[in-house]
Amino acid sequence: MSTAATCRAAIGSLYREHHGWLHGWLRRRLNCNQQAADLAQDTFLRLLAKDEMVDLREPRAYLTTIAHGLVVNHWRRKALEQAYLEELASRPEAFAPSPEERALAIEALVEIARVLDGLPPRVRDIFLLSQIEGLTYSAIGSELGVSINVVQKAMIRAMAHCYKALYPA
Fold first, then answer.
1. Where in the numbering of this chain does the RNA polymerase sigma factor 70 region 4 type domain appear (predicted)?
2. Which pLDDT band holds residue 108 (cuts at 50, 70, 90)?
3. Cβ-count burial of 69 within 10 angstroms (0-12 exposed, 13-18 middle, 19+ buried)?
């Protein structure tokens, strides 16, 4: 049997043995049966997308780790979507985007949040102060109590991180 077939068989066995448990674990955290079912499926899809199957001594701990990341992403997306919808509600109806434009904007916000989550907190804060708030490096340094050199290095790091996220090798 090939490595890929062996991997699929192992994931199939893992699915049969632990899917019900994982679905229940997710349902208790999300209070939504359908969302729990979706995230349980997504957890196993993540396993299928891996090139190799890892040796699982504690399969439930491994599945929990993957599922927890998916739950965090779910709540992050919900928070971004809620903030976006609240902002839209404060605007006159004539300026409201179409449902398609809303969906595209929410997807873009989720992707931006994902990319920025990979940055250390101070680097992310410096990047956001520069790019969103429009502050100069000097003003950022004054606000955060760091030198302009620290701000410059953080911006280089943030830009390099964003570039790698957008254009992976």
1. 110-162
2. confident
3. middle
Rg over alpha carbons for the chain, rounded to the nearest Å, is 21
Quick one: tokens of 91?
Answer: 């605007």
34 CB burial (10 A radius; 0-12, 13-18, 19+): exposed
Q: Residue 83 has what pLDDT?
A: 81
CATH classification code of 1-93: 1.10.1740
Every domain of the chain and the residues it spans: 1-93
Do residues 122 and 154 lie in contact, with contact meaning Cβ atoms separated by under 8 Å?
Answer: yes
Helix (H) or strand (E) holding 58: none
Percent of the chain with pLDDT over 70: 93
Look at residue 128 and tell me whether its pLDDT is greater than 90: no
pTM over 0.70: no
* Tens digit of each residue's pLDDT (9 = 90 or more) over 129-150: 898 888 899 999 998 899 999 9
